[in-house]
């Protein structure tokens, strides 16, 4: 295995933030800390997590210059605060740290739902702080401070959804920050973001969770059979269905309308295929199956997935492990 | 990238088939040819494909000892005939080669639906041939003779569904053949196979095809947005939805009842989640999301998927390609 090259310092000098406070050191928060270091940004990192065990682990891993035990200490010197916790926690956290923000601070987040993030955070910020919500579209199925890595954001897209009143300079500084971490940046309206992500992320996760649950609950097919024969396609879905349950609960609770809209369309399309199967309409099946092939090629050409067959999986099977 | 080790000759000497006829040289058929060679089996390989271009390519690649231009020539000396074409072609092919089978020949296939395979092939075989349907649960999203590789079956399961009248010795010889190619072998009733695969393979494919189609058809979200932000989960589904359209059309037409049964359960489960989202029932969402995590761990422990995050993807992005 060759590890992807970590991001290097951007060619243009970045107007780096002096002090960055990361709230929540899971997969994304700890990856930001690592990517800031790998990019060589001259930024002081202050980390805070609500879980004492995570704070201890962050200290052990040396991910931050300071590990703060409380929110007030974490944000008091910060030029940029990034919330990296589940969306459902944003309101309470912002209420807790809002009064301690220094003048000119930019507050951002990495939540997968942006209208809800804005609504939860904005009411608790003082006038002298600027809110610029963000969403790096990147991740793995793993969670926690050990799961992060510096290259996570490389060539992925980070979507910023600044409210109309956000100063352009703040949006530009945050854009530069994400570019320095290897990401491409796109600006978008929060409501549109939530619809786009409902189709490219939220509904796919819901479907994956559902089919894994359906398979687990069958009386006529044993769990052992589901496991053994999972290479027929099912195993792909189990990766996504292994994602963090709290984060995903909050996504569905806070992006309800867009998710329900996409789900409705998905249901209609699935019902049409179900009917084609029942009535033996091979042409309808073939026509759909033939046109979906093209979209994968486009994703690969856009650098958003690997061209290697089967994702380039190398199964560390007991058999090969024994012979290696 | 390290290529998985190709299968080596089995420790016990295999009662290898003298002549093997492979009908259909796509991903699976060409992988069988390669795996037979890699395993060092002393088997003569005769290849036939209905497409002249495929026959020419098979000859160029040197995948067979003989490339036969017609079915009769392909099977006339064969001790084992394996059909590696879409299930919908089995009846016509068996009718074509049945009269030319030699005494004692074993006929098998690699179709993803087994009751239909039996029903299509059996009526056309002479009494002096034995039918033992089989299904190696392995594959990639790619098709054609160039897509195959010798290690495809390694540590994957091959399911045999012999009819009651099949002699035990024929079943055992075919089992040995698949074991020599690196597979684990399991015997199963055809109807049960079709139900198990409906949940571990067929319905997952149908769902993937559906969501990729749904995403392509949205008026409010551009194709460019779907591509850019596909790393949020959607891209996983596009791999499966890039599979061969003819093969999958035939799977759904021939495994109708089992697919509709599993789809019905999936629909019920998805509707329950949809309702939980609409009514803000976070507990119901969390409870499902928490229990599906376990099944992935079990699949990894069983050697049926990689433990590496994100399938160990290494994205050959334009950015990294330029710097490598």
Topology record:
The structure is a homodimer of 324-residue chains.
Chain A: E1 19-23, H1 27-38, E2 44-48, H2 52-61, E3 66-67, H3 71-75, E4 80-83, H4 90-97, E5 106-109, H5 114-121, E6 130-131, E7 134-136, E8 157-160, H6 168-180, E9 184-187, H7 190-217, H8 223-228, H9 234-240, H10 245-254, H11 256-278, H12 282-291, H13 293-301, H14 318-323
Parallel strand pairs in A: 1-2, 1-4, 2-3, 4-5, 5-6, 8-9
Antiparallel strand pairs in A: 7-8
Beta percentage of chain A is 5-15%
Whole-number tally of structural domains of chain A: 2
What is the largest interface, and how many residues per chain? A-B, 123 and 123 residues
Look at the structure and give the CATH class of the largest domain in chain A.
Alpha Beta
CATH superfamily of the largest domain in chain A: NAD(P)-binding Rossmann-like Domain
Alpha-beta classification of chain A: alpha/beta
Q: What structural keywords apply?
A:
disordered N terminus; three-stranded mixed β-sheet; six-stranded parallel β-sheet; Rossmann fold; 14 helices; homodimer; 324 residues; 2 domains; alpha/beta; 6-phosphogluconate dehydrogenase C-terminal fold; 48% helix; disordered C terminus
């Amino acid at each position: 295995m060759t590890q992807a090259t970590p991001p290097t310092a951007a060619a243009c000098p970045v107007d780096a933030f002096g002090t960055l406070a990361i709230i929540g050191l899971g997969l994304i928060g700890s990856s930001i800390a690592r990517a800031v270091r790998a990019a060589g940004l001259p930024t002081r990192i202050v980390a805070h997590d609500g879980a004492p065990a995570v704070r201890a682990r962050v200290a052990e891993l040396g991910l931050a210059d300071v590990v703060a035990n409380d929110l007030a200490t974490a944000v008091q010197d910060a030029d940029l605060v990034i919330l990296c916790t589940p969306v459902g926690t944003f309101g309470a956290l912002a209420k807790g740290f809002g009064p301690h923000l220094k003048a000119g601070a930019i507050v951002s987040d990495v939540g997968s739902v942006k209208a809800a993030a804005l609504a939860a955070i904005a009411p608790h910020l003082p006038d002298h702080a600027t809110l610029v919500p963000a969403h790096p579209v990147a991740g793995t199925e793993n969670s926690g401070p050990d799961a992060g890595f510096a290259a996570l954001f490389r060539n992925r897209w980070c979507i910023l959804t600044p409210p109309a009143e956000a100063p352009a300079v703040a949006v530009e500084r945050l854009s530069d920050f994400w570019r320095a971490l290897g990401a491409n940046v796109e600006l978008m309206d929060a409501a549109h973001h939530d619809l786009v992500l409902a189709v490219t992320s939220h509904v796919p996760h819901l479907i994956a969770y559902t089919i894994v649950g359906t398979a687990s609950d069958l009386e006529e097919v044993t769990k052992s059979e589901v496991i053994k024969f999972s290479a027929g396609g099912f195993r792909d879905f189990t990766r996504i269905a292994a994602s963090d349950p709290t984060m995903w609960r909050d996504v569905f609770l806070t992006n309800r309308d867009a998710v329900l809209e996409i789900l409705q369309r998905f249901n209609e399309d699935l019902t049409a295929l179900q009917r084609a199967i029942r009535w033996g309409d091979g042409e309808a099946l073939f026509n759909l199956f033939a046109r979906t092939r093209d979209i994968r090629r486009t994703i690969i050409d856009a650098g958003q997935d690997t061209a290697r067959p089967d994702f380039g999986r190398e199964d560390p099977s007991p058999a090969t492990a024994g012979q290696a």
